[in-house]
Design brief:
heterodimer, A: 296 residues, alpha+beta, Enolase-like, domain 1, 5-stranded antiparallel sheet, 11 helices, B: 194 residues, Ubiquitin-like (UB roll), DNA polymerase, domain 1, 2 domains, 36% helix, 11% strand
Chain lengths: 296, 194
């Protein structure tokens, strides 16, 4: 094994081009587990800790450009206003020690269906900034996850940042696990209201081979909210609409039975989380602020 | 490969480090600092918690090569670290933490032994003893480092703050109540001292 220690982003890209099998390591909270357990013996480890700009973020007009290595702790402390869904999701990640090291770039690189950030990114709307010596491209989050622990990155590409749309309405995040800390999601759900475009977006974690949106549920809800004039009249969501939305979210799952839960439990729980997060965000949108705080 | 970094204020050099080796392994097996414990090796248990440039991390998940040129504080250096923090004004206001510059300026003083035996205890260590929060003791070093860092950041923690700060540290003996007592005790003593 070789340990590559680029001092700059340019050096990191050059190293990845020269050694496409190199495994990038930043927080190490996934990679080191695999090495400690001998599940993985990469030829090269590419340490990104010395590339300072990966730990920085910029708040723009429309979106936040979040450096790939910004630790979850920083997201919780600094970006709760701009990225409320991701901040809630970050708070559910493992423990303080892990949140001090891990970041969204690693979650995307690993591309586990159970990664905590994914449902929040899908719901908010995001693009992954991938770069290689050949150039930079922005990969829409919906096209990023290509299979179980697979993503759209080319072998010579590294994740520089994630561009996440700033919240234009309430966002929520919910996760099922056996305790609050140190839990890999049994399943998770993110929901974002986008009043500017009068749309709702969702993200489901750990209930399909990849993180997915519940697109049929979104389309149903967008049409129902539009027809009922809900965005203007601010009425409470009709229970039958919430139920239909929840059922469609359950139907968007394609889960498996595993040690953390059964497929049918996951479908059930996603439906419950869909209904709850819709209610919380909608109540918040209506200004009653009954449930503006997250449950994380 | 060779790794140079600072541990408890002293420059250290570790040789023949395997590229996939963890910081924890280097501390325990190469530098003779067995205070940080090796248990789950996957970041679940927190018994290997150390401070890296002031930030609490699981040392089993930090690659040794990543600490080149950086500052590590282990439980062996905690008493001296806490003492120097108190002498430099500590953190009575609640909004501080240790800056990188502060961490860099800090140096531990020689103690009776390399592992810190016979040295003075930090307030959090004394509180753990006084509250009976140590049973088998395996989780204690990680809890001490995590609790000490929380009290530095947040001198008047609520029970929820304590639970949150220690949520990454598992104890299988005490049921946590005595540990909670110990942290409350350390917080109370800290506020009396100011």
């Amino acid at each position: 094994m070789d340990f590559l220690r680029p001092a700059s982003w340019e050096e990191a890209l050059a190293a990845k081009a020269e050694h496409p099998t190199a495994v990038p390591i930043a927080g190490g909270t996934d990679v080191m587990v695999e090495i400690n357990f001998d599940h993985r013996r990469p030829e090269y480890l590419l340490d990104l800790n010395r590339v300072g700009e990966l730990s920085e973020w910029e708040v723009g007009e429309e979106s936040v450009r979040l450096g790939a290595s910004v630790p979850y702790t920083r997201i919780m402390e600094n970006l709760r206003g701009e990225l409320p869904g991701l901040a809630l999701a970050s708070h559910t990640v493992a423990s303080p020690q892990i949140r001090n090291r891990g970041g969204v770039g690693g979650n995307l690189g690993t591309a586990s269906p159970a990664g905590d950030a994914h449902p929040a990114l899908l719901a908010a709307g995001a693009e992954v900034e991938a770069e290689s010596v050949r150039g930079t491209r922005l990969i829409p989050i919906d096209a990023f996850y290509t299979g179980v622990k697979r993503n759209a990155l080319a072998p010579d590409e590294l994740i520089r940042a994630v561009h996440i749309k700033k919240a234009d309405g309430p966002q929520q995040y919910s996760k099922v696990g056996t305790r609050n800390a140190m839990v890999i999601a049994v399943c998770a759900f993110g929901l974002a209201l986008h009043p500017e475009t009068r749309t709702v977006r969702t993200g489901i974690g750990s209930a399909a081979p990849t993180p997915v949106r519940a697109k049929a549920a979104e389309e149903f809800l967008n049409a129902a909210l539009d027809e009922g004039g809900f965005w203007d009249n601010g009425k409470i969501i009709t229970p039958s609409v919430a139920k239909q939305f929840a059922d469609l979210c359950s139907a968007a799952c394609n889960p498996i039975d595993d040690v953390r839960g059964t497929a049918s439990y996951r479908r059930h729980a996603v439906g419950i989380m869909a209904r709850r997060t819709l209610t919380w965000t909608w109540e918040s949108y209506r200004g009653t602020a009954a449930h503006t705080e997250g449950v994380a | 490969m060779r790794v140079n970094f600072t541990v408890n204020g002293r420059p250290q050099e570790a040789d023949d480090v395997w590229e996939g080796e963890s910081l924890l392994y280097v501390l325990r097996e190469r530098l003779g600092l067995p205070g940080s414990k090796n248990a789950c090796e996957q970041g679940e248990c927190g018994s290997c918690t150390v401070r890296l440039d002031g930030v609490p991390v699981c040392s089993c998940l930090v690659a040794a090569g990543q600490v080149e040129g950086r500052e590590v504080v282990t439980v062996e250096g905690l008493a001296e670290f806490a003492k120097q923090r108190a002498e430099h004004g500590g953190c009575a206001t609640g909004s501080c933490g240790t800056s990188l510059d502060e961490a860099r300026r800090w140096e531990s003083k020689p103690q009776d032994s390399h592992t810190g035996e016979g040295g003075e205890l930090s307030p959090i260590q004394q509180a753990f003893i006084d509250a009976g929060a140590v049973q088998c003791g395996f989780c204690t070093p990680g809890l001490l480092v995590a609790a000490d860092e929380m009290l530095e950041r947040n001198p008047t923690p609520t029970d929820a703050d304590i639970r949150e700060a220690l949520s990454g540290n598992l104890c299988r003996c005490t049921g946590y109540e005595k540990i909670m007592d110990a942290v409350r005790l350390a917080a109370a003593r800290q506020s009396e001292a100011v």
